[in-house]
Design a protein that fits this description.
Rossmann fold; four-stranded antiparallel beta sheet; alpha/beta
Length: 242
């Protein structure tokens, strides 16, 4: 069984059907890309997996067992972490506090924050992922866009046991910062992390993804192995020309 699988996923918002009949899976060490025009249902799929939206019907399976996520915390407990476009970082807090946001380490009877341990663990993770930040004690607002994105991704990797969801992780970045984030994603894949990636850039998709799932108007058009398809075929699937 794959590490993560969705079967016949359907999500309705009142009379609007945002996603209908999506089935896909992701395994460790694999990048699966979700592509399609705006409104195709990509973010809805990711939000269902992240516990933001409960599916109207269909199943989510982890290691072959059906699970339900009534809220995002449960998805996180099940080893699924998400990196959304807003990053969900606390700008006035240092990097290490953002790494442990909501999961802060404490010590002693007074349960004081264990800043030394959190800072040291953050530094080890940044070094392991080759994220170039002067110090884990640096404040988020003092980082570049690429560094902020790297912190959000590193946090997801630190806590994810099964899957990292990425919704347009380089949408607001320049060329050099985009390249650094893409290299970080490759490094995560090589570490055995399963990644579900949303991207409007087909160059990025073909540079990172092992498989590509195409959505159009909420429905799944098909899944292609990246090495066995072309950009022209994917565009035709997105636009409905095939």
């Amino acid at each position: 069984m794959p590490l993560v699988r969705v079967e016949h996923l359907r999500k309705e918002f009142g009379a609007v059907v945002a996603v209908d009949g999506v089935t896909l899976d992701a395994d460790g060490g694999e990048v699966v890309a979700l592509v399609g025009d705006n409104g195709a249902g990509k973010s809805t799929v990711v939000n269902c997996l992240a516990g933001v939206y409960p599916p109207t019907s269909g199943r989510i399976l982890l290691d072959g067992a059906a699970v339900q996520f009534p809220h995002p915390l449960e998805a996180r407990r099940q080893g699924i972490e998400a990196v959304f476009q807003d990053l969900a970082l606390a700008d006035l807090q240092p990097v290490y506090m953002n790494m442990f946001l909501g999961r802060e380490l404490v010590r002693g009877l007074l349960r004081r924050l264990d800043r030394e341990t959190m800072s040291a663990e953050t530094q080890r993770l940044l070094d392991d992922l080759d994220v170039r930040i002067d110090s884990p004690r640096k404040t988020i607002r003092d980082l570049s866009g690429g560094q902020r994105q790297a912190v959000a991704i590193a946090r997801a990797v630190h806590w994810a046991q099964r899957l990292v969801l990425m919704d347009e992780p380089t949408a607001s970045l320049g060329v050099a910062e985009t390249q650094r984030v893409e290299e970080l994603i490759r490094r995560l894949r090589d570490r055995g992390t399963a990644i579900l990636l949303i991207s409007h850039s087909l160059d990025q998709v073909f540079g990172l993804a092992d498989r590509i799932c195409v959505l159009r108007r909420g429905k799944q058009v098909g899944i292609r192995t990246a090495a066995q398809t072309t950009g022209e075929e994917i565009v035709a699937m997105i636009t409905g020309l095939v």
